[in-house]
TrEMBL record:
Naturally occurring in which organism (per UniProt): Marinobacter iranensis
Keywords (A to Z) from UniProt: DNA-binding
SUPFAM superfamilies in UniProt: Homeodomain-like
Keyword rRNA-binding appears in the UniProt entry: no
Residue ranges flagged as DNA-binding region: 31-50
Organism superkingdom: Bacteria
Domain HTH tetR-type intervals: 8-68
Protein name: TetR/AcrR family transcriptional regulator
Family annotation (PANTHER family): ACREF/ENVCD OPERON REPRESSOR-RELATED, ACREF_ENVCD OPERON REPRESSOR-RELATED
Length: 232
């Protein structure tokens, strides 16, 4: 019983240690020896949870992706229309890339978008719902989900590398994603504008019910995040 209780905490210590090293100026020192030194655990304890450093990085990517979905559920899951859910979720992932570079570094990895992640599960269900309501016209939900996952990772990578006009880039991305679901131009424009307006209200705390903002979004009105609040 005691051993089982300790396992999640030990894993968390190892992940936290690896994350601290990887995102520091000493990232080249990332190794099992350095991780166990930072976490203050034995090598044997490390191997109880992971076999390689790469496995730790994969776990961080997966955890970051799942945590993002959990963070945004209060403002995302109240939306009813599939095109609203897809456009808002997609835009918010891209906005976070501008606000949280450390997070963005990990969610460009493929583990953040695998089939067993929360984001993949929700997107799959939203596409299925869109098909059942006649909003989306795609032959394969699996193919559409994989397409959206790949587009998300690439767009985040592009944003952290730097684009000339982040607002325009994200608008274009949202418009193209909704178009890829088989929606006409009218719905594409509605989704682009709705997702922008919805996030403005969320950032300003004026959404109905005032769903909470997670810690990473508290600087959403900073110079980096403010672009969508004043993008008229």
């Amino acid at each position: 019983m005691t051993k089982l209780k300790r396992k999640p905490e030990t894993r968390k210590k190892l992940v936290s240690a690896a994350l601290k090293i990887y995102t520091s100026d000493d990232y080249k020192k990332l190794s099992i020896d350095e991780i166990i030194r930072q976490a203050d655990v034995s090598r044997g304890t490390f191997y109880n949870h992971f076999q390689t450093v790469e496995e730790v990085l994969s776990a961080i990517s997966h955890d970051f992706s799942d945590q993002m979905v959990s963070d945004i559920l209060p403002m995302y899951d109240i939306l009813k229309e599939p095109w609203q859910r897809i456009s808002v979720g997609y835009r918010l992932f891209l906005v976070r890339a501008l606000l949280d570079r450390k997070w963005a570094m990990f969610v460009t990895r493929h583990e953040a978008w695998e089939e067993n992640t929360l984001v993949s599960s929700y997107v799959f269900k939203d596409i299925e719902l869109g098909k059942s309501k006649g909003n989306f016209c795609v032959e394969s939900t699996e193919a559409a989900t994989d397409f959206l996952m790949g587009a998300s990772a690439k767009a985040i990578e592009r944003l952290i590398q730097g684009v000339e006009n982040p607002s325009q880039y994200i608008d274009t991305q949202v418009r193209m994603i909704i178009s890829s679901m088989g929606c006409n131009s009218e719905i594409c424009e509605m989704a682009t504008e709705f997702s922008l307006t919805y996030l403005r209200h969320w950032a300003k705390g004026t959404l109905q019910g005032k769903p909470r903002k997670p810690n990473w979004a508290r600087n959403i009105e900073s110079k980096e995040g403010n672009y969508f609040l004043n993008n008229d």
